[in-house]
Amino acid sequence: METMVTSKLNVAVVGTDTGVGKTVVTAGVVGWLRAAGYDARAVKPVQTGHPPDDDAGFVAAACGTHAAATCGPRLEPALAPAVAADVADRTLEYSAIRGTCETERDRDGPCVIEGIGGLRVPLADGQEVIDLVADLGVPAILVGRSGLGTLNHTALSVAALRRRGVAVAGVVLNQYEGSTTAERTNPEIIEDMTECPVYALSPVSMETPEDVVAGVREELPVEQLLQTVASAEADGNEVSRNPTEFES
Ligand SMILES: Nc1ncnc2c1ncn2[C@@H]1O[C@H](COP(=O)(O)OP(=O)(O)OP(=O)(O)O)[C@@H](O)[C@H]1O
Ligand SMILES: C[C@H](N)[C@H](N)CCCCCC(=O)O
Ligand SMILES: [Mg+2]
Asked: Which residues of the sequence carry a binding annotation for ATP (predicted)?
């Protein structure tokens, strides 16, 4: 099927926690969009734990170009941004962080904003990750773990996003191996609890950053997921149950 992706596709890839796979999913989505011919770019609003953490650098390497990702302020302490700034005696300004993301959101190509940790992570000036996603007015893809414990984390995160008017275009249960009863039952239960489409992403090769894009594209129906994102954007951030075709 010829895929025409709307050039104004914007989405926030958020997580139920830190380390759940937001960067892996972001790299796969941006890689898929760029392979489809669109000037897609990821933005990491704030990077903490840097070095070694460098999510934008990973996405850029995965897509083979620095044009595939950009990053706001970088802080060394591996903490929530507001806490890292405090510890490192640095100043973070929410308005500047938001401004950078708005500029990326409004540029020509698709924009993929990666969250920092989970949703209630303090960013700056009393604002949290969820405030930024709500302020940007883009739909979200929620990434969570696949096993026992994720029902609670995922349902709470979806409810928090919806309370802020953020459409959840899909839930990605990451590193899914189906080796436990919890894993095998979670996708359907989460769909029932949240009425969100749920996708299982198996472990992919992390040998090289490029492998991640190939792996995510193989394992995740990125096109279907982005159709729901495009519908949500078209419907003013409401997730319609029937994904529509992208238009250019
Ligand atoms: N599908 C996957 N297959 C194999 N390994 C994975 C997968 N998803 C995540 N990982 C492993 O988990 C690590 C953390 O994933 P990732 O960096 O994407 O998390 P994150 O949610 O972006 O974390 P942060 O909150 O720090 O941004 C990866 O470096 C990788 O080692
Ligand atoms: C250090 C690394 N870059 C992480 N993304 C930072 C995540 C902060 C999580 C804060 C918390 O929820 O306790
Ligand atoms: Mg990350």
From this structure: 19-24, 55, 114-117, 174-175
Please report which ligand is nearest the Cα atom of 20: 1
Q: Which residue in the list 34, 41, 44, 74 is annotated as catalytic?
A: 44
Q: Phi-psi region for residue 109, left (φ > 0), alpha (ψ -120 to 50) or beta? A: beta
If one counts the domains in the chain, the total is: 1
**Residue 207: exposure state from Cβ atoms within 10 A (0-12, 13-18, ≥19):** exposed
Is residue 129 within 6 Å of ligand 2 at its C-beta? no
The reply to whether 70 falls in a domain is: yes
Of all protein residues, whose CA lies closest to atom 13 belonging to ligand 2? 80
| 206 falls within a domain | yes
pTM score: 0.94
Taking Cα atoms as reference points, which of 103, 122, 125 lies closest to residue 113? 103
Tell me the three state secondary structure of residue 243: coil
Digit-coded pLDDT (tens) for 116-154:
999 999 999 999 999 999 999 999 999 999 999 999 999
Structural domain harbouring 224: 10-234
Residue nearest to atom 13 of ligand 1 (CA): 19
Q: How far is CA 218 from CA 49, 78, 202, 205, in A?
A: 30, 32, 10, 11
Q: Give domain status of residue 243, yes or no.
A: no
Residue 3 placed within a domain: no
Query: Is a pLDDT exceeding 80 seen at residue 202?
Result: yes
The preferred substitution site among 46, 206, 212 for testing ligand 1, maximizing ligand atoms within 8 Å of CB, is: 206
Q: CA 168 to CA 12: how far, in whole Å?
A: 9
Q: Is the peptide bond before 51 cis (omega within 30 degrees of 0)?
A: yes
